[in-house]
Specification:
It contains five helices and eleven strands, in the order E-H-E-H-E-E-E-E-E-H-E-H-E-E-H-E. The strands form two sheets. Strands 3-4-2-1-11-10 form a six-stranded mixed β-sheet, with helices on one face. It is of the alpha+beta class.
Length: 231
């Protein structure tokens, strides 16, 4: 069984030209051909189009799972997941740290052909202390899960390759490729990550570096191709 998972920080649909353009983001989503896409920095009341999430879900014929983390002058803001996979459970976790920007995680239970998946989609904080707290919270969820395949996906904001957060993730999931996804036009940093356990089901992990993707956001999408042997 093959499956494609993606993560994409859409930067409120603001591209390198400073324009909000939901149609451009929708075009990138179509290029991904993904079964599930975790998105970060989603402006729920984006100017183009007004009902952004419904529009993006319709674009790829996917169900929409909201993960609002805050409300500001432009409306609700946060994470979201678009899924074409059958979801059997949804839990939203508040992983915020006091006096820092609110942060959240969406935990999904998915069952496909007798295989149970745990998928956690998140966007971590900007300070090292925040990320350490948040990774501990999320790894506790991973450890407690009895799913056959466990996936942690999102914008981890981890700039330090030898930081404790990444060491803890490697200890749980093993060494995972880390292609650079930020900034989109000249990617240098691997801020967007997909961690998969067991590692043997991950067959490919790479950025989607198309002309449209380089223009649509300040991050490139990251794609993981999975292969699960059902025999």
């Amino acid at each position: 069984m093959d499956m494609r998972i993606a993560t994409y920080n859409i930067h409120r649909t603001i591209g390198h030209d400073g324009r909000e353009d939901g149609q451009r983001i929708a075009g990138v989503l179509r290029e991904l051909h993904a079964d599930l896409i975790a998105m970060q920095e989603v402006g729920y009341n984006s100017d183009s189009p007004h009902n952004l999430l419904a529009y993006l879900g319709d674009t790829i014929q996917a169900d929409v799972i909201e993960g609002i983390t805050m409300h500001n002058k432009k409306g609700h803001y946060g994470n979201a997941v678009l899924s074409r996979l059958p979801i059997t459970g949804i839990i939203r976790h508040d992983i915020s740290v006091p006096r820092r920007e609110p942060r959240g995680a969406i935990e999904l239970a998915i069952a496909v052909r007798g295989i149970n998946f745990q998928i956690i989609a998140t966007h971590l904080g900007l300070s090292p202390g925040e990320r350490r707290y948040q990774i501990k919270r999320l790894l506790a969820l991973v450890t407690a899960s009895k799913a056959d395949v466990k996936i942690l996906v999102g914008d981890l904001n981890e700039w330090f390759l030898w930081g404790r957060s990444l060491r803890w993730l490697k200890s749980e999931f093993g060494k995972t490729p880390r292609p650079a996804s930020f900034p989109a036009r000249w990617p240098i940093f691997a801020l967007d990550r997909i961690w998969v356990g067991p590692g043997k089901v991950l067959s490919r992990l790479d950025v989607h570096n198309s002309t449209m993707a380089r223009a649509a956001s300040d991050h490139l999408p990251l794609i993981a191709d999975l292969h699960i042997d059902l025999e």
